[in-house]
Amino acid sequence: MTKKIQEIADKISDYREALLGSITGLSEAQVNFKPDEDQWAIADILHHLALADEANVKLSGLFFKQIQEQSAPADPSPDESVLDCMDKFRDGLNVKAKAPERVAPLSHLPAQESLARLRASREKLIEAMNGLAAYDLSRVSFPHPLLGPLNGYQWLMIAGLHESRHAAQIDRIKSAEGFPG
After folding, report:
1. Can you give the chain as a three-state secondary structure string?
2. Could you give the domains of the chain?
3. Per-residue pLDDT tens for 73-82?
4. pLDDT by residue (tens digit) across 47-83?
């Protein structure tokens, strides 16, 4: 793995650890608590994150296809950092939005099952990142439902930023009135 991709992998792993830390020790009643009927429970957030992470794995396959179709060159700057590639989207990442149906938790999934899916999808994403590392991912893109076209590096970073956003949502739920003790 190149330094650039390793740096992204480390950063999204940090976001994952923070997410997992936000749910450590929660009871079944706590993960299923909804502050309001229109809002997700923590279990729903975990299900949504599992669906989104699985979608990112599929997206990495699309990037491999784009690389092959374009005969993409090797990454000319494998040691440069791209951790700031999402900085221009910071405001857009904090806007409350409705999840696209493909990543919406339409059925209730137990939190432990979502966590298992998150672990499995992250392993697959890291494996895909190893394969993608050799290429210039600024040359591949796919539209984000809110932010528009994002390149491969941005999509990898958003995997962690998305989890960070929802870890903050989990913290708000835990401080909501009526949250089980």
Report:
1. CCHHHHHHHHHHHHHHHHHHHHHCCCCHHHHCCCCCCCCCCHHHHHHHHHHHHHHHHHHHHHHHHHHHHHCCCECCCCCCCCCCCCHHHHHHHCCCCCCCHHHCCCCCCCHHHHHHHHHHHHHHHHHHHHHHCCECHHHCEEEECCCEEEEHHHHHHHHHHHHHHHHHHHHHHHCCCCCCC
2. 3-19+29-174 (1.20.120.450)
3. 899 999 999 9
4. 999 999 999 999 999 999 999 999 988 999 999 999 9
